[in-house]
Amino acid sequence: MSEGKRTIWEILKRRIKKMLRMPLPPKPYERVFEREAELFGLHRGDNGEFFPDFHITSSDTVVDVGCGFGGACVFAAAQGAEVVGVDINPPWIEHTKKRLREETSSQRWKLYVSDSNPLPLESGIATKVICQEVLEHVDDPAAVLAELARIGRVGARYLLSVPDP
Fold this sequence. Notes:
By secondary structure, the protein is α/β, with parallel strands linked by helices. The protein is built from 5 helices and 7 strands. The protein has helices at residues 8-19, 28-40, 71-78, 90-103, 141-151, and strands at residues 49-51, 54-55, 61-65, 82-87, 109-113, 126-132, 152-161. The protein has a 5-stranded parallel sheet with strand order 5-4-3-6-7. Helix 3 packs parallel to helix 4. It is globular.
């Protein structure tokens, strides 16, 4: 059997743990995400710094476009910010909703399923806009960038990233 395939015993063990509601080990991407955050000084709840020099406070309205599994949404909600998460994948929105309910006490959040062209949001609502590792996946990056600009208030700060040019 190849290295990448799990044995029947591993599959059964995982299913039994799930049935018994035993904690499952984190998925590989969760470990990588947490490790990257630690290495690069990201998501520092002690000072509200989501990214170096990108602070989130309770006076912010944070929009996370392509929120995925909700890491930025949970961080922002924990800082007391109003949070809006958007993602094209309904199961990821459900996962983010579950995380927000379980990991924060915030009631100040909304989640939307959307391809972000257009965003289902009013103009000028966000003080902080996060869009990480999304633009390389959309059909029309310029249109999505225009939407990001539209939802930001005057003076809004943006954290955008893509894996390569």
